[in-house]
Amino acid sequence: MTYPTLSESYYETVCTAGFREDGSWVRIFPVPHRLMRLQEEKSYAYSKWQWIEVDLVHRPERDDRPESFRIKNIDTLKLGTKIGTKANGWNNRWHYVKKNKTIYTNMSDLIQLAKDNKLSLAVLKPNQIESVVCEKYSEEDLTKHQKKLSELQAKYNAEQTQLSLWDDVNHLSEHFKFAEKIPYKFSYKFRTDDGKWRTLMIEDWEIVELYRNCINGGDSEQVACQKVRDKYMKIAEECDIFLFLGTVYKWQKMNGTNPFVIIGVFYPPKGTSQQLSLDF
Q1: Which H or E run contains 136?
Q2: What are phi and psi of 67, to 5 degrees?
């Protein structure tokens, strides 16, 4: 689940990716996730590693990536069980991470498959992670975002309308505040079997929340960035790390561009993925 971004049509959305029971990938977008929590009669918001049941529709005229779907009817959405990490949790998660999927080890292969529109979601196993890169957004980017945020917040406060994504959702909380944009982006610098070093942005909601929690706890921006670096390098060094990759639609249509970002990090205890494959 990516960190929320602003949307003219839906106010604020996230992109979520997951697995069907047969192991195949599915992308659900747009999802106004935090707004879904505020419905008066029922919360439709789901968590990471939680089963859901919902009617989806593929609209290739809007997004022709093979895994991309939109929610057809929000009333069909049912929240199921969550797969934790205790007891048999890592086994369950690993089962669906690898089920009916290729675990890629060559980034060049993935880029070509995406350019051919054969896939836009994948599991990648890097053979080396060198660092976590922390880069501050430009003042121009931050100013543009703040302007758009202010405009949408004013529109939301004035209209107090229903989301245009679904006609039958209830009115939303008048106290809703849009997700702030943190001034930094974080990336893994890694190498795969093609021998090339690549730096891919981590767009997972969790890494942004880690930074925000540090800031809210009184840390300076510099200290917060260092804590994020330390945490994600510790994961890379001490765990059996896999990267969930997804393409950015407009980048996938551009020649010569790596269309992927990191949408999630899967990190079972180091060396256990092979054992889990045998034990499940």
Answers
A1: strand 128-136
A2: -95, 0
Is the model's pLDDT at 165 over the cut of 50? no
- The separation between CA 103 and the C-alpha centre of its own chain, rounded to angstroms, equals 18
Q: Which two tokens stand for residue 88?
A: 């048999």
Specify the higher pLDDT residue, 43 or 228: 228
DSSP-derived 3-state class of residue 137: coil
DSSP β-ladder status, 56-57 and 68-71: antiparallel
Torsion of CA 95, 24, 109, 65, to 10 degrees: -150
Give dist(CA 43, CA 39) in Å, integer: 6
- Find the mean pLDDT for residues 31-56: 80
The model's pTM is: 0.87
Of 137, 116, 130, 97, the closest CA to residue 245 belongs to 97
Who contacts 91 (Cβ-Cβ below 8 Å, separation ≥6)? 276, 279, 280
The predicted-structure confidence for 167-183, as pLDDT tens digits, reads as follows 443 445 556 677 788 99
Reading the block at residue 254, the tokens are 């551009």
DSSP state of 74: G
pLDDT given for residue 6 in this prediction: 82
Q: Contact 212/10 with Cβ under 8 angstroms?
A: no
Beta-sheet pairing, 5-7 with 11-19: antiparallel
* CA–CA distance, 135 with 78 (Å, rounded to integer): 39
